[in-house]
Write a structure and sequence with these properties.
By secondary structure, this protein is an all-alpha fold. It is built from nine helices and no strands.
């Protein structure tokens, strides 16, 4: 519902207020969850309020002090459960977390798969246009390869978003083949 959506937007903005993305422009963090919603609605045709709320909230557990209980209280069990599906276990080493995302993607709910697709689309776009500071070409390429492996596990979820993802992968191939130059 629209009221949950606006509440989720305000909640995520507040929770992420002191965070920035890793790019050189130190973009406000909230731009990223908003970018996911933009991709879901305007590129994927996704109009499920539960999915759009989960997209706004997808990084609050992982990256802020927010608890699952808070999400249940504010947004109900369904949205909280989708966000929990999208949350990596920070107690695990990074390599293990990355492996788990690949392994667990096929068993995720339809709603979580949609958010995962949008998250990978947005992060790959950022890597091509607004990358984390200090990332060299092999690191960017590694992230593309890992994203490809995660998305392989969610195919059959939304053909429009999967096409958008494939176009970015192709743009990545061109970018990497030119040694990190656009065009
Ligand atoms: P991450 O892979 O976690 O960093 C990428 C994440 O940062 C994204 O998933 C995204 O997560 C977030 N992010 C923030 N700003 C941006 C942006 N501008 N563009 C794209 N993503 C952004 O990096 P870590 O530092 O945590 O390292 C994880 C892995 O990287 C390690 O397991 C290791 O394998 C590898 N690594 C490789 C190195 C190398 O030189 N090759 C060196 C060090 C690590 P979200 O959507 O959640 O915000
Ligand atoms: Zn994200």
């Amino acid at each position: 519902m629209i009221n949950h959506f606006i509440l989720a937007l305000a909640f995520a903005a507040e929770k992420h207020q002191h965070q920035r993305r890793k790019d050189a422009k130190i973009t406000p963090y909230i731009n990223h969850p908003i970018a996911l919603v933009n991709v879901l609605v305007n590129e994927g045709g996704v109009l499920s309020w539960d999915v759009l709320c989960a997209a706004l909230l997808h990084d609050v557990i992982e990256d802020t002090e927010t608890t699952e209980k808070e999400l249940v209280e504010h947004f109900g069990k369904k949205i909280a459960a989708i966000v929990m599906e999208l949350t990596d276990d920070k107690a695990l080493p990074k390599e293990e977390r990355k492996l788990r995302q690949v392994q667990h993607a096929p068993a995720a709910s339809h709603e979580a798969k949609l958010v995962k697709l949008a998250d990978k689309i947005c992060n790959l776009r950022d890597i091509l246009t607004n990358p984390p500071s200090g990332w060299d070409l092999p690191r960017k390429q590694e992230y593309f390869a890992w994203s490809y492996a995660v998305v392989a596990g969610v195919r059959g979820t939304n053909s429009k978003l999967e096409k958008v993802f494939d176009v970015i992968m192709q743009e990545g191939q061109v970018y990497f083949s030119k040694g990190g130059v656009h065009g």
